[in-house]
């Protein structure tokens, strides 16, 4: 099977996903978060670094669940481009949106 190259938008969305997961993980070790989500630490590292820009849905669902993020909040945050001059939304703000 031939995989088409990722579009710039897909790459950017993958980078936003990785940043969101890193922020949500906080001081928790990558190893512990990965084990709790039942994914390999290498998979989590690649997602957080943006090297895997389009991870499988069950993988993201498992990681988000362990980190206390709703999938709605993850989807909303990774699909809104950052505006010039504004910092990226934090995992905390994603949780606030999730609670509303």
Descriptive notes:
- The chain is globular and about 35 Å long.
- The chain is built from 6 helices and no strands.
- It is 63% helix and 0% strand.
- The protein has helices at 8-25, 30-37, 41-49, 57-67, 71-78, 91-99.
- It starts with 7 loop residues before the first helix and ends with a helix.
- Residues 83-100 have low confidence and may be disordered.
- With 100 residues, it is mainly alpha-helical.
- The longest helix has 18 residues, at 8-25.
Summarize the helices and strands and which ones pair or pack:
Elements: H1 8-25, H2 30-37, H3 41-49, H4 57-67, H5 71-78, H6 91-99
Helix pairs in contact: 1-3, 2-3, 2-4, 5-6
- The number of helical segments is 6
Judged by helices, strands and strand pairing, the structural class is mainly alpha
Helix content: 55-70%
Average pLDDT confidence is 84
Percent of residues in beta strands?
A: under 5%
Largest sheet: none
Order of helices and strands: HHHHHH
Radius of gyration: 13 Å
Strand count: 0
Low-confidence segments, ≥5 residues, pLDDT <50? 83-100
Give the distance, in angstroms, between the N- and C-terminal Cα atoms.
43 Å
Shape: globular
């Amino acid at each position: 099977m031939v995989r088409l190259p990722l579009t710039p938008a897909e790459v950017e969305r993958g980078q936003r996903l990785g940043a969101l997961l890193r922020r949500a993980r906080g001081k928790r070790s990558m190893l512990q978060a990965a084990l709790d989500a039942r994914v390999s630490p290498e998979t989590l590292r690649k997602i957080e670094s943006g090297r895997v820009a389009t991870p499988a849905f069950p993988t993201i669902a498992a990681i988000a669940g362990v980190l206390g993020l709703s999938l709605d909040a993850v989807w909303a945050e990774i699909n809104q481009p950052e505006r010039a001059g504004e910092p990226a939304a934090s995992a905390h703000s994603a949780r606030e949106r999730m609670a509303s």
